[in-house]
Specification:
The protein is mainly alpha-helical and 109 residues long. Helices cover 68% and strands 0% of the residues. α1 packs across α2 and α1 packs across α6. The chain has six helices and no strands.
Length: 109
């Protein structure tokens, strides 16, 4: 999923923040927490179409795994709608740390 067009901008944000912290002497937990907060803030500021595309891609991935997720309301648009959907679903609340962990492991290799 992280390699899809919809997720590339978010992956790029995570990679950029990881590189920014590369020479800091942080414990793994501190690094993950710091990166997750930074990436979460930047992701929330992305254009609505980027967030909506990423949301829809995540919904497709969940459907392929047989997991149900709330759909965006019909006619919904904008970051507020996606943000509201994120707030009510525990899996998506955990998505930014998962994104960070995934990209951190790719960057360390």
């Amino acid at each position: 999923m992280l390699r899809t067009d919809a997720w590339r901008p978010l992956v790029a944000v995570a990679d950029q923040r990881i590189r920014a912290h590369r020479h800091e002497d942080l414990a793994v937990g501190e690094l993950l927490e710091s990166l997750s907060v930074e990436v979460g803030d930047i992701v929330a500021a992305q254009p609505p179409q980027v967030l909506e595309a990423a949301w829809r891609e995540w919904v497709k991935a969940c459907a392929a795994e047989g997991r149900l997720v709330p759909a965006l309301p019909a006619g919904a648009a904008g970051a507020e709608t996606v943000e509201a959907a994120l707030a009510v679903h525990a899996d998506l609340a955990a998505l930014v740390p998962q994104l960070v962990v995934s990209r951190l492991s790719e960057n360390i290799r």
